[in-house]
Structures are given as C-alpha cells and as structure tokens.
Amino acid sequence: MRLKQFLCGNEMERMPNMAFKAMSIIFKIMDLFYPFERRISSFGIKEGFTVVDYGCGPGRYIERFSRLVGEGGKVYAVDIHELAIESVKKKIEKYNLQNVDPVLVDGYLCDINDHTGDAIYALDMFHMIKDPVSFLRELHRMTKTDGFLIIDDGHQSRKETKQKIANSTCWHIVEETKPHLRCTPL
Ligand SMILES: C[S@@+](CC[C@H](N)C(=O)[O-])C[C@H]1O[C@@H](n2cnc3c(N)ncnc32)[C@H](O)[C@@H]1O
C-alpha cells in the first residue's frame, strides 16, 4: 500500500484508524523533543477568544488553547475522525477543560454558527483537503469579520498553499512566516 494512501485513506480525508493511532504516537514523541509552546505563543490567542482548532487530531494543543482563552473563552476542537473526538473527550475529562467542545464534522459542513471564531487554526492538515475551496469557504463562514485564520502548508509547498487560498477568493494573506500564514476574511 502506498504511504499516502495509508495515511490519508481513499475516501474524503478520513484516515484509517491504524494510521490515526500511529500519528498520535508520533506526535507524542515529537512533542517531547520539540515542545510547541513557542509556536503557540506566536498565534495571538487572547483571553476571552473563541478558538476553532480545525482538524485538531488527537488534540495536542487543546489544553494550552483552553488555558489561554480562559473561563470567558471557548475552544471548538473539530475533526472528521471519530478517534480524534474520542481523544479530545478524554483530554477534556483528564484536564477538566470546561470551555472545550469537540465537534465531529462531516465533509465540510461544520456545526458551528456563522461568525463565531476569533481565531481559526488549520494546522498540519491543509494538504489532506481534497476540495480546498469548499473547505476555506466553510472556515470563512465561521470566522468573525474581525477574526483571523492561521493555516500552515502541512505536507505541500507554500506555492500550492497560497494558490489554494487565492482560488477561494475569501481570504487575504496578511502575514507570511516560515511556519504559517495569517489570513483575514475578505
Ligand atoms: C496530521 S493531523 C494534524 C492534527 C493537529 N492539527 C496537529 O497539528 O497536531 C490532521 C488531522 O486533520 C483531520 N482532517 C483531515 N481532513 C479533515 C476535514 N475535512 N475536516 C476536519 N478534519 C480533517 C484528520 O482527521 C487529522 O486528525
């Protein structure tokens, strides 16, 4: 089986369970050696924010996001994979994260109201998206007019990422750094 097929599965973006479990273990090991604190501090999360972690995977960032937004804020942990939602639920219980809501998404239709998020994060997942225009428009729908999107390339080139963002005609790239792009809604 080709590696890409194993990691991404054949239909939509739902990975096979084995691949999801393997990925979760790899993330745990990576986070031991390369803690993500510094990266998160550049994300601009403020107390009281509503944050959407879109494609949250096993939820490695949610505890930190939850503490940063505080009691008055909210974190939506969104994923297309049931195992991601299970993992997020376990973290909510373990760390008593009362401001985190797991959201299982079907395709690109997400059960989050229009103009909800101050900050939307799509990290290490954009390369998995088969219909980037629909995906980016859905993120746009749930973002506040003065909110922003932080998106990274995942396993694709920066050129590809920027082309897909341009094709969506709904995001403006306002900042570009090596790790990610910051976009505001058009
Ligand atoms: C490589 S993981 C990254 C997880 C997390 N963002 C991180 O950086 O640790 C990619 C995640 O995106 C999810 N995903 C892929 N396509 C998706 C979609 N259309 N909607 C929601 N989640 C999706 C996958 O199920 C997987 O959990």
Shape: globular
Q: How large is the count of helical segments?
A: 7
Evaluate the radius of gyration. 15 Å
Fraction of residues in helix:
25-40%
Output the CATH homologous superfamily: Vaccinia Virus protein VP39
Distance between the termini: 41 Å
CATH class: Alpha Beta
| Assembly form of the protein | single chain
Question: Which range does the strand content fall in?
Answer: 15-25%
How do the strands of the widest beta sheet line up side by side? 3-2-1-4-5-7-6
Bound molecules: S-adenosylmethionine
Quick take:
The protein has 186 residues and is an alpha/beta fold.
What does this structure look like?
The chain has 186 residues and is an alpha/beta fold. Helix 6 packs across helix 7. It has a seven-stranded mixed beta sheet with strand order 3-2-1-4-5-7-6, sandwiched between helices. The chain has one domain: Rossmann fold (3-Layer(aba) Sandwich), CATH 3.40.50. It has seven helices and seven strands. It binds S-adenosylmethionine.
